[in-house]
């Protein structure tokens, strides 16, 4: 019996057998053969990260696969290997060294890498993901050893389909793609943005249980406007300014259709860290022809809405009773604002235009108001309310008196003492979200939010902060990061074989996440459940997303399983070593 029907061979136009080594169809207690051809030496087995087990190859496996003598005599269990690796990683004090060690492990022993990541998620997420992945991207050229993922540059124009065929996997279910122009809050890192798709897909597997072989990280290189990188002798990308306009659009179009041709209709394409002048357009252009999801717009919106829904237990009232002020009106800011307004409309039945009125945004030029409408980008226009022009966040806070302040500016230290004190002066419990990544770009720290509000703020941030003690009470900041959403969301989409992403699926994901927060969490000031239970959380999110896809008639994997949570859990990749006998 099949363990999981995730691999949708029927939908892949080129066909190909995804389950080459019976990994997908074999249950954990069944041995599998890593070989489809007979070999004279197991040396290449040891060098294949997908099948390597290091010193854990048993005596019988060493005999059966020509490994005798290629390994020292000891046989170590995976648990002991994990303990050893964790000891080693903890010895590195510099976060980037930990990142390099983890990537080294991913490149040599994939299952051990995922075992570490799954078992130590709170400790290792900041290593393979934000904040350290940001520094890794900045220095990617200098630390580059082995290539990960697929690079599609302007040189591949006209040959993108051929380039995709060079990827060793014939069946792919999720692609995370960036063009490197807005990497976290660090700006244009060009081709070195590859660290982001690689990191996001590691989370798809560790947090959402999507098998690594089904995940493809891609970086589109159209040049960079980052002078520092253009002058860096170790830069790995095209040494030219960014292509724009027709040249950019044509490359992206060729890419999108080559993906569909090579991997079929149902490959989920997750856009990540594109600059907003391309992100909104790409999502709009391809959402009717492809299965596309923008993590920065949609995933962020779902995770923040989940935090807001759960925070209402502490703040009181409904979403419609609150006043929201955003610093930053780009992908994250307007994406979140849109989903909040949509959810309020679902709740009160009023038109979305009316429910936008309590939601205000500030961009680099000040409060978004109707007198600025003509010069605003389209995605900001719905937020141009009647108000006199205001510059400076502090003045906007004083005028709007928000109950909830959300930072999505990409600029650190913008929530000053005066701003947090103001929020605390007119709110019993101010909710402050400093969402910009990495930590250096956070609008304020956990310590600042708690001390400046005299322990009254509820605080969540995009990158993690340690718990903070204030006047004898320990506050646990939440990590409002789309990492809570996209792995479970993607799993739900794949499970259902959904052909499109729909806002209803985002709302379902938000509610599934919010419902995982318990009284015990609220007592510590948490509005998100701990990441330690993330696989269970992802299974619940996946189940709700899949259920919504079925309800909306978007699902193609029929019939609908009776118990979607159980289905999601069954589908999840386990990093435990398989027996190769
Ligand atoms: N926690 C999470 O899960 C996520 C966090 N993020 C983080 O959010 C940040 C923003 O991302 P994104 O929305 O995609 O970026 P965008 O570039 O799309 O938007 C940034 C917005 O911030 C505004 N801005 C920039 N500087 C200032 C300033 N000094 N004062 C006021 N407004 C300013 C910009 O104004 P203007 O339009 O005038 O240029 C723009 O509206 C990044 O740091 C990113 O890492 C993003 C996605 C998910
Ligand atoms: C978390 C994320 O997607 C970002 O900061 O861009
Ligand atoms: Mg992002």
From TrEMBL:
Identify the CDD domains for this entry. NAD_bind_1_malic_enz
**Positions annotated to bind a divalent metal cation:** 272-273, 296
How does the cofactor attach, per the note?
Divalent metal cations. Prefers magnesium or manganese.
Q: Which GO terms describe its biological process?
A: malate metabolic process
Q: Where is the Malic enzyme N-terminal domain?
A: 106-287
Report the InterPro entries cross-referenced here: Aminoacid_DH-like_N_sf (IPR046346), Malic_enzyme_CS (IPR015884), Malic_N_dom (IPR012301), Malic_N_dom_sf (IPR037062), Malic_NAD-bd (IPR012302), Malic_OxRdtase (IPR001891), NAD(P)-bd_dom_sf (IPR036291)
GO CC, sorted alphabetically, is: chloroplast
- Cofactors that this protein relies on: Mn(2+); Mg(2+)
Q: Is Oxidoreductase among the key words of this record? A: yes
Q: Which amino acids does the record list as binding (S)-malate?
A: 182, 437, 481
Query: NCBIfam families per the record?
Result: PRK13529.1
Q: Which family does it belong to?
A: Belongs to the malic enzymes family.
Protein name per the record = Malic enzyme
Name its species.
Answer: Gossypium tomentosum
């Amino acid at each position: 019996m099949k363990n999981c029907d995730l691999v949708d061979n029927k939908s892949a136009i080129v066909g190909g057998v995804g389950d080459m080594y019976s990994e997908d169809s074999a249950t954990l207690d069944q041995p599998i053969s890593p070989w489809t051809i007979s070999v004279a030496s197991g040396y290449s087995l040891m060098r294949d990260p997908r099948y390597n087990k290091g010193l854990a190859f048993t005596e019988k496996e060493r005999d059966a696969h020509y490994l005798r003598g290629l390994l020292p005599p000891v046989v170590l269990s995976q648990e002991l290997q994990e303990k050893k690796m964790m000891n080693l990683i903890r010895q590195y004090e510099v976060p980037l060294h930990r990142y390099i060690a983890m990537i080294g492990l991913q490149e040599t022993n994939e299952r051990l890498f995922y075992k570490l990541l799954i078992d130590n998620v709170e400790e290792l997420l900041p290593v393979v993901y934000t904040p350290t992945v940001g520094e890794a991207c900045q220095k990617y050229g200098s630390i580059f050893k082995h290539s990960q993922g697929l690079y599609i540059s302007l040189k591949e124009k006209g040959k993108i389909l051929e380039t995709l065929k060079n990827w060793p996997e014939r069946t792919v279910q999720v692609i995370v793609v960036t063009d490197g122009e807005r990497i976290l809050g660090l700006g244009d890192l060009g081709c070195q943005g590859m660290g982001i798709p690689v990191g996001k897909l590691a989370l798809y597997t560790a947090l959402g249980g999507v098998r690594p072989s089904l995940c493809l990280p891609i970086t589109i290189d159209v040049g960079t406007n980052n002078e520092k990188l253009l002058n860096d002798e170790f830069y790995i990308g095209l040494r030219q300014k960014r292509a724009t306009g027709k040249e950019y659009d044509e490359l992206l179009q060729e890419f999108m259709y080559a993906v569909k041709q090579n991997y079929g209709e149902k490959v989920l394409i997750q856009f990540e860290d594109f600059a907003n002048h391309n992100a909104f357009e790409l999502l709009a252009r391809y959402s009717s022809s492809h299965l596309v999801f923008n993590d920065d717009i949609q995933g962020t919106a779902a995770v923040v809405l989940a935090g807001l829904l759960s925070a209402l237990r502490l703040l009181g009232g409904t979403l419609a009773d609150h006043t929201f002020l955003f610093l930053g009106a780009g992908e994250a800011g307007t994406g979140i604002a849109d989903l909040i307004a949509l959810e309020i409309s679902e709740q009160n039945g009023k038109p979305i235009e009316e429910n936008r009125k309590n939601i205000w945004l500030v961009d680099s030029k000040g409060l978004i108001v109707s007198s600025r409408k003509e010069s605003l980008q389209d995605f900001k226009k719905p937020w141009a309310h009647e108000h006199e022009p205001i510059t400076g966040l502090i003045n906007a806070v004083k005028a709007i008196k928000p109950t909830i302040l959300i930072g999505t500016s990409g600029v650190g230290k913008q929530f000053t003492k005066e701003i947090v004190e103001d929020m605390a002066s007119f709110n019993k419990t101010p909710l402050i979200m400093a969402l910009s990544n990495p930590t250096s770009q956070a609008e304020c720290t956990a310590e600042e939010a708690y001390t400046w509000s005299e322990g009254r703020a509820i605080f969540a941030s995009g990158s993690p902060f340690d718990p903070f003690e204030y006047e004898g009470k320990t506050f646990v900041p939440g990590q409002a990061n789309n990492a809570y959403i996209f792995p479970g969301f993607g799993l739900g989409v794949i499970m259902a074989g959904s052909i499109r992403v729909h806002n209803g699926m985002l709302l379902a994901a938000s509610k599934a996440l919010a419902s995982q927060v318990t009284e015990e969490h609220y007592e510590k000031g948490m509005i998100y459940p701990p990441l330690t239970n993330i696989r269970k959380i992802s299974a619940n999110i996946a189940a709700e997303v899949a259920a919504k896809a079925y309800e909306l008639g978007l699902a193609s994997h029929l019939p609908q399983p009776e118990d979607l949570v159980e289905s999601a859990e069954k589908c999840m990749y386990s990093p435990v070593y398989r027996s190769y006998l």
